[in-house]
Design goal:
The longest helix has 10 residues, at 59-68. This protein starts with a strand and ends with a strand. It is α+β, with helices and mostly antiparallel strands. The protein is 19% helix and 27% strand. The strands form 4 sheets. Strands 9-6-5-4-10 form a 5-stranded antiparallel β-sheet. The protein has a two-stranded antiparallel sheet with strand order 1-3. It has one domain (5-120). It has helices at residues 59-68, 87-95, 101-104, and strands spanning 5-7, 14-16, 18-20, 24-26, 34-38, 42-45, 73-74, 77-78, 82-84, 105-106, 118-120. Strand 4 and strand 5 form a beta hairpin.
């Protein structure tokens, strides 16, 4: 199944929607995780993504995320798509610690997720 991707980041400032069909990859050597964004605010870590087995920071948060999704992980690999409410939460889950999701999720061409968010002043 192929999804059309629309990215909109909700903040206090106005943001303009920018559409893309990109798959984003987590920029950390200890992972091999992929993510899609649906409806502008649903961050889906895709099945088959390898997460870092270690926890480096935000230990309670990362531990809780991984415990809540334990039935969706087998030997460090996601066995189903897993939805998160923000790219940073998805990044914490796969990277094992605090992560600025707008920076660490990137396309194969190394474009940051932030590059797909247009803010209006």
């Amino acid at each position: 199944m192929f999804f059309h991707l629309s990215i909109l980041h909700h903040t206090n400032s106005n943001a303009n929607l920018r559409s893309t069909d990109e798959i984003f990859y987590f920029a950390k050597d200890t992972t091999d995780a992929r993510m899609r964004v649906l409806d502008g605010n649903r961050y889906i870590v895709l099945s088959g993504s390898r997460i870092d087995p270690n926890i480096y920071s935000n230990k309670d948060v990362v531990k809780k995320l991984r415990e809540e999704n334990a039935d969706k992980i087998d030997d460090g690999i996601t066995i189903t798509d897993i939805e998160f409410s923000s790219p940073s939460t998805a990044g914490e889950f796969v990277g094992g610690g605090a992560a600025n999701g707008k920076y660490y999720w990137r396309t194969k061409d190394d474009k940051k997720l932030a590059d797909f968010i247009v803010y209006i002043k």
